[in-house]
Every structure is written in structure tokens, then in C-alpha cells.
Amino acid sequence: MRPDLSLNLCGCGLKNPVIAASGTFGYGVEYSGVMEVSKLGGVCSKGLTMGGKAGNQGERLYETPSGLMNSIGLENPGVGHFIEHELPQMKKLGVCVIANLGGGTVESYEEGAALLDAADVDMIELNISCPNVKAGGIAYGIKACSAREVVGRVRAVCRHKPLMVKLSPNAENIVEMALACQEAGADALSLVNTFQAFAVDLHKRKPVFENGYAGLSGPAIKPIALRMVHQVCKSVTVPVVGLGGIVTGHDALEFIMAGAAAVQVGTANFMKPDVTLDILRQMEAWMEAEGVASLDEIRNIL
Asked: Is residue 216 within 8 Å of residue 195, measured between CB atoms?
């Protein structure tokens, strides 16, 4: 008998716990020519903002040992455009559709969340790693008080759809941050987002990225991400979706054992477009070999 990888995440039925992470999988349809996207548990949209954004100028991607730095700048067509054009195509994929929402002010978060709450998405993922333009650019996800405010305000307008909050590993205290978001009304948490990092172009004698700092992801961050997921899972009661450097099925299973309800795969999609299906096969093969019938048998055992 094949292992059961299905799960219920905040009322959303997922075939399995493997979700394509925001910003690395487009809107899902871009990958449909190279893999069966319908076999995944879910797909997170590119990060959306109310008015849309053109993104950053200059270098946007930079490889590092076992990692990738990015400074995309949340390039997106806007929430309204997404609902009218991209969302209908995502709904045809046959997976859980998660809309990732960012913003520069609490008001823009509220406005975007209200529109998405009335749309045909299955879940909203709130990206609080965005800079708070009214607070000098410090990200909402750094201080627990700022996160509590934006999550609480979004929760008030998000009445119909589950709200998952994506945490930044750059938070002053990741457990305090997780608890603040849970108390403010988050139905689930996802972590970690990218680590703030820096790269130098020796020939030009200047930073690689025009904004100076950029987000680091990939296999290099996995051990730290795994530690943070383990800490948060021991402290909160809401489901946690783990991500950060997952490349193999064994990586994914480690996050499940650390307490994650599901996982997201990001940078690895650039390494191999159908890596998510490899991860699923590897998870299933390990479970069969180990006699594990359901992920519930190993979840949160560490």
C-alpha cells in the first residue's frame, strides 16, 4: 500500500505537502510545459502588491556557494490584474492556490487582502518581509510589534480565506515573532524567507546589487532554516510550513520531522524545473522503505 502524503492545511485539502514557493514558480502555468504541476500539493503566486511594481534595476540574481542571492524587488502586475488574468489560469492547475501578498504600508496590505479574500484563491500568504515605508524602510517582519499590527489589521479584513504569515529569518526573535503573528490571528505560518546578505564585485569595486543588500536562499541556508522551523513548531499551535534550502525528499522529511505540516520548495526550482516531483518520489520511496504509512507518524518527533 502506497504511503499517504495527503493533508489538510487550514481547511485546504492538499494531495501532498510539497508546495512551490512564491517567486520561484511564476503562477504555476509557466512550468506546465515541463512537468505535471497538478501532482503538487500547492503553488504560491509571485509576490503581489496593490498597484504592481516594476522591480529593481541592475543585477537581480547572483550565485553563491550552495546558494542564490536575489534582488527582484517584488516585480508583479498588481493584485487586480492577478485576480482578473493570472488567477483563472492557476485555478486550472488542480492544486491549492496560495496568493502571496506584500505591501509597503498597512493600508496597502489591508486593501490587497480584502480583494484576495473575495477572490477565488484558497489561501493568502502574507509576506511581512516587505519594508515599512512609514518606518524608514525597516521590514514589518523584524520587530514583533510591527508584525502584530499588520497581521491584526489584515486579519480583520480577511474573513473568508485562511491567512498564512511568511516569517523573515532576520526577525529580532523568530519565536517571539511567530507567537505575535499567531496571537494577531494567523491561521498558519511559513518560514523562512531569505536571509539578508551582501556581495561585492571586485572588478567594479562596488556592491553587486544596486540596493546593496539582497536575499540569500538555497541549500546553504537549510540548517539554519531547519533550526528556526523546529523552534517555532515547539512554540506555536498553528500549522507551520517549512522552507529554506529544500532540494531533496530527505530535506523535506527533515522539516516534517521538525514539526512542519508541509514544505515549500523555492531555489531548487531554478536548479531543476521538475525537482518538486523528484522530491515527492524520494519522500514516498523513503516512507515505503521505512514502513511509514503516513506523515503523521513522523511529524514533530524531534
From this structure: yes
Identify whether 130 is a catalytic site residue. yes
> Among the options 10, 130, 158, 233, which is catalytic?
130
User: Helix crossing, 222-233 with 174-183: angle to 10°?
Assistant: 50
Residue ranges of the chain whose pLDDT lies below 50: none
- The long-range contacts involving 24-31, CB below 8 angstroms and separated by at least 24 positions, are 24/265, 24/266, 24/267, 24/269, 24/270, 25/269, 27/82, 27/86, 27/89, 27/90, 28/89, 28/90, 28/93, 28/95, 29/89, 29/90, 29/92, 29/93, 31/269, 31/273, 31/274
Name the residue among 200, 109, 117, 106 with its Cα closest to residue 159: 117
Q: Give SS3 for 142.
A: coil
pLDDT of residue 93: 97
**Amino acid of residue 202:** L
215, 61 contact by CB (below 8 A): no
**C-beta separation of 220 from 202 below 8 A:** no
